[in-house]
Structures are given as structure tokens and as C-alpha cells.
Amino acid sequence: MIRFVTGNEGKVREAREYLNDDVRQIDYDYTEVQSDDLAEIALHGAREAFEETGGEEPIVVDDAGLFIDAVGGFPGPYSAYVEDTLGVERVWQLAEREENRRAHFRCVVAYYDGENAETFSGAVPGTLVAPRGDGGFGYDPIFEHEGKTLAEMSTEEKNAISHRGRALAKFADWLAEQ
């Protein structure tokens, strides 16, 4: 059994697609260190959650962000903060002025079991566009991948190409070898 530290049930459902039903959700508010490195943030959270929840079963924590090429990868690890303070529309307004609107979502899944600390990353490339679509959350309305924004995709379409899914697939492969 793996404990996935998140308050987001959608993330847990996606994890179960890759890890079968061996995933249990833990809603624990770990300290999020300030870093430009998603792996450092996720691994710190996994270690802290492992210790604080009794250290009996492995822990998985993920961290993700939107990285915009034209502005040096901003907002990156600070994506949630930027969304909360500026909002998706203002991020689009920033990107709209740029000739290069390429971006990517990146996710790092961190695993910790008291002895082993491993990270697995996944990314999905795209382009920032004017907001479209009614689905998804966060930056999904302004992130286009192969002609559709993530907000225009069904959950199944989005999960099939997601950055988190790509990281979880690598993690599942590693776990199967253990």
C-alpha cells in the first residue's frame, strides 16, 4: 500500500490508474519548502509526511508547475501561488505579449519509504492561448496541447497525456521492478 499525500481526489484517481488500487489518500499539510526545484519540494514533503504519519507505509508526494519558456520558466514551482495571487487571466495577459508562447507542465512524483528516496518526472509540451473550455482547473483553459486546451479535453483525454501521468508511469515501472 502506498499513501499519496494530497487533498485532491482527482490526483488519487489518476494515481490508481497507474498503481492499481494500492493507493490510499492522506490529507496531510506538509511544509512546502521554497525552491526552484520541483524534486526538492516533493521529496521534502514525502520525507516529512512519512515521519509525521508514523512511518509505516511508503509515501508519495507530487509537485507540479507551469513553465513558460519566454519568461524563464516562470511561474514553475510557484504556479499555485501565482494562480492564487494573479489569476490565470493575468498569466495569459503576460504570455499574450510574447512572440514565443511555448510552455510545458512538469510534475515530479517523490517516493519515500524510510530508506529509499526516489523521484520521477513527467512533462507535457504546449502553447499558451486565450482561455477556452469549461473543464479542468488551474491553467487548463490557457494551455493548448495538439490543438485543444486541457480545459477542452475530457478527464480521460487529459490523463492520457498528463505530466502527472507520465511521472506516475515511470514510478509504476520502477515499483514493479522492486
What's the quick description here?
By secondary structure, this protein is α+β, with helices and mostly antiparallel strands.
Distance separating the two termini: 14 Å
Count of all domains: 1
- Work out the helicity level: 25-40%
CATH architecture: Alpha-Beta Complex
Largest sheet: 8 strands, mixed
* Order of helical and strand elements: EHEHEEHHEEEEHH
Low-confidence stretches: none
What would the average pLDDT be, to the nearest integer? 94
Shape: globular
Beta-strand content bin: 25-35%
Radius of gyration: 16 Å
Instruction: Quickly give the structural class.
Output: alpha+beta
**Tally of helical runs:** 6
SSE map:
Layout: E1 2-5, H1 9-19, E2 23-26, H2 38-52, E3 59-68, E4 75-76, H3 79-85, H4 88-96, E5 102-112, E6 117-128, E7 143-145, E8 148-149, H5 155-161, H6 163-177
Parallel strand pairs: 1-2, 1-3
Antiparallel strand pairs: 3-4, 3-5, 5-6, 6-7, 7-8
Helix pairs in contact: 1-6
What does this structure look like?
This protein has 6 helices and 8 strands, in the order βαβαββααββββαα. Strands 1, 2, 3, 4, 5, 6, 7 and 8 form an 8-stranded mixed β-sheet that branches. The chain is α+β, with helices and mostly antiparallel strands. The protein has a single domain, classed as Maf protein, CATH 3.90.950.10. The model has no long low-confidence stretch (mean pLDDT 94). The protein is globular and about 50 Å long.
